[in-house]
Every structure is written in structure tokens, then in C-alpha cells.
Design a protein that fits this description.
The protein is of the alpha/beta class and about 280 residues long. The protein has helices at about 25-40, 60-65, 75-85, 140, 170-175, 190-210, 260-265, 270-275; strands spanning about 10-15, 45, 90-95, 105-110, 115-120, 125-130, 135, 150-155, 155-160, 180-185, 210-215, 220, 225-230, 235, 240-245, 250-255.
Length: about 280
């Protein structure tokens, strides 16, 4: 895929912050209302969080409710919204049933023609017990992705990641080296880990790559007691927070200048200064 020439024209990015529940219909209705709000405020690129349509903590129920791509209700809705509103629209992720007792945690990028322009399956699985007593075993339910993804926007190249991927810097470097100027990190960060690490990690990934980072997030308390951190962020290539959400559903927006990517990389050219080296004995 050849990179789209960087037009240099600024555009407006919007991160949608939601409190997704255990059923598709109300969750999608809430997301649609916020997408329309962002469009009304002038957004050109609109992004929703991880698990936009369904956040179900019970494994059996999650497997039952996560539908195949051809019958998932979020896909025709987002196709229609992108075409109607004439925007680029990222579904941060939908749980896509794979028919083998596993789910793909899959991002979809829709173009203004309503077509899917890119898909990305979350690579890194969050398997951990955290000190607040919550246990997460994503690998028991989700099938890990195996391929990094970049795609073209009118303003430059976009790299796709999801949530826990944020803790694996080599993925972000690969995306930047593949020409990404912008990287998405739709997330459902836990309240505990979000308060400790969310801002630091997102700013670090922006600084390391010289990319804009777009991180739409889940927020609040969900069915089953899961708590997510919120604080959706848009971060500049220099590591500046351009927009931040709070702890309630809503929309955060920022004007994006693609030329800032080249400026940041010229001041700290770490992508070109990298060298090969032998590992320690």
C-alpha cells in the first residue's frame, strides 16, 4: 500500500467516550448519539472506544452475544453513519464471533463512502490479576491478532492498535516506520491501571514515534462491576495533551495539523537514528 501524500491541511479529530453495557442495542444507540454530536461540532475523523457495542464480563454470555462480522449490528450502523455524515469513522473495536469459542477484538475503519477501509485484531492479550481483586484473562475468550495494520487517510497514514497494545512500544515503532502519522488506541483501561499509567504511556508512545495519538476510552462502572478509567486523550507528536475527557460519556475534540509530525521528528529523529546491536550475553 502506498502512503497517501500528506496534504498538510488541518482536520478535526474526535474521540467518543462511552459507558458500554452488556447489550448491543442500547450501547450502539448511545455511541450513535455521540458520533452525531461530534459530527455536528465539525469532526472529520471520529473514533469510538474498545468494545463499543458490548462489554460483557461473563465469558459464556460474551461468546453468545459476540456475533460474526456478517451479522454484527454495529457494522451496518457504522457503515450508514460514515456515509450519511461523510466522515471517517473508527469503531474502536467490536467483539466478532469466530465460531471456535473465541472472539476477535477487532477495529474497523469506515470511509465516507461507507466501506470498510481497514480491520485490525488486537494483538496483545491482557491476562492478569490486579490488586483491586479483579482478574482478566482475555486469552481465554479472545483470539490474538497476528498482524500490524496501517491504512491511508486523506491527511496521512493511520496505524491501528487497541488498549493493552499500548504497553508494547515495538508495535508503535513498527507502525511509525511503516509511515503512520497518527495512531489510534481505543481502550477500556481499568480504573486502577489507568490512574497509574494511562497518561504517561500515551504521551510516551507519541514522543517515541512522533505521531499523534488518538485514545477514545470507556468510562465508569459497567455491568458486573468492572470499572474503566475514561480520560480519553488526544496527544500531539511532541507529547502535549490537546484534549482530554473526564469520567463521564462525552466527546473530546482537537484540531490536528499533520505538519507537526515532521516538525517533531526533525527535532528528535529517533526513528532514523536507531541502530542494530547485539543482545547481552
Amino acid at each position: 500500500m502506498s502512503a497517501t501524500p500528506n496534504s498538510g491541511a488541518p482536520f478535526t479529530a474526535a474521540c467518543i467516550q462511552t459507558n458500554t453495557g452488556p447489550d448491543h442495542a442500547p450501547s450502539l444507540k448511545a455511541a450513535e448519539a455521540l458520533i452525531r454530536e461530534a459530527h455536528g461540532a465539525g469532526a472529520d475523523l471520529i473514533m469510538t472506544p474498545e468494545v463499543t457495542s458490548l462489554l460483557e464480563s461473563r465469558r459464556a454470555a460474551a461468546l453468545e452475544k459476540s456475533l460474526p462480522e456478517e451479522s454484527h449490528p454495529g457494522i451496518p450502523l457504522f457503515r450508514a453513519l460514515a456515509a450519511e455524515l461523510q466522515v471517517w469513522l473508527l469503531a474502536g473495536s467490536f467483539g466478532i464471533g469466530l465460531g471456535d469459542n473465541k472472539i476477535a477484538n477487532r477495529s474497523f475503519l469506515f470511509g465516507p463512502d461507507g466501506n470498510v477501509k481497514a480491520r485490525y485484531d488486537k494483538i496483545h492479550m491482557f491476562d492478569v490479576e490486579i490488586p483491586d481483586g479483579q482478574t482478566y484473562r482475555e486469552s481465554a475468550t479472545y483470539r490474538a491478532g497476528e498482524k500490524a495494520v496501517v491504512t491511508d487517510l486523506p491527511w496521512g497514514r493511520l496505524g491501528l492498535t487497541i488498549c493493552y497494545d499500548l504497553r508494547f512500544p515495538p508495535l508503535y515503532r513498527v507502525l511509525a516506520e511503516a509511515g503512520a502519522s497518527f495512531i489510534t488506541v481505543p481502550s477500556a483501561f481499568t480504573r486502577l491501571t489507568g490512574a497509574a499509567h494511562w497518561h504517561t504511556l500515551l504521551k510516551a508512545r507519541a514522543i517515541e514515534t512522533g505521531c499523534y495519538i488518538f485514545a477514545p476510552a470507556q468510562c465508569g462502572t459497567h455491568a458486573g462491576g468492572r470499572e474503566t478509567y475514561g480520560h480519553s486523550l488526544i496527544v500531539s507528536p511532541w507529547g502535549e495533551v490537546l484534549a482530554e475527557g473526564g469520567e463521564e460519556p462525552g466527546v473530546v475534540m482537537a484540531k490536528i495539523d499533520p505538519a507537526a509530525v515532521g516538525k517533531a521528528r526533525s527535532m528528535v529523529p529517533s526513528l532514523t537514528n536507531v541502530r542494530d546491536y547485539a543482545p547481552p550475553d
